[in-house]
Amino acid sequence: MNYQINFIPEALTDMKKLDHSVRPQVVKGIQKVSQNPVSIYQGGYGKPLGNKDDSNLTGLFKIKFRGIGIRVVYSVEEKQGVMTIIIVSVRADNQVYQEASKRKSKHNL
């Protein structure tokens, strides 16, 4: 079952800021993960996040595009079949997760 993919407004802005050469790879990766976005421990693609550097990301997951240095943080609502993209970024780990934590709080995710 493919989950519906939603983007918070800031994540859409993140996508628009990506270089045109990497954007298709990120879109393709997100679409692939949407087939089974739950935790890798449940047979899915998502790597669970927790408390990291004073950022509470419990309940969120990440996708890491190693070759292009991009991270995507998202939430999953299994009952509704929705995957919500919170941040798409090329920033360093700590910056990505701190910003994801702010957005999680702002959007009550």
TrEMBL record:
Domain of life per record: Bacteria
Gene3D superfamilies: RelE-like (3.30.2310.20)
Record's protein name: Type II toxin-antitoxin system RelE/ParE family toxin
Source species of the chain: Brotonthovivens ammoniilytica
Phylogenetic classification of the source organism: Bacteria, Bacillati, Bacillota, Clostridia, Lachnospirales
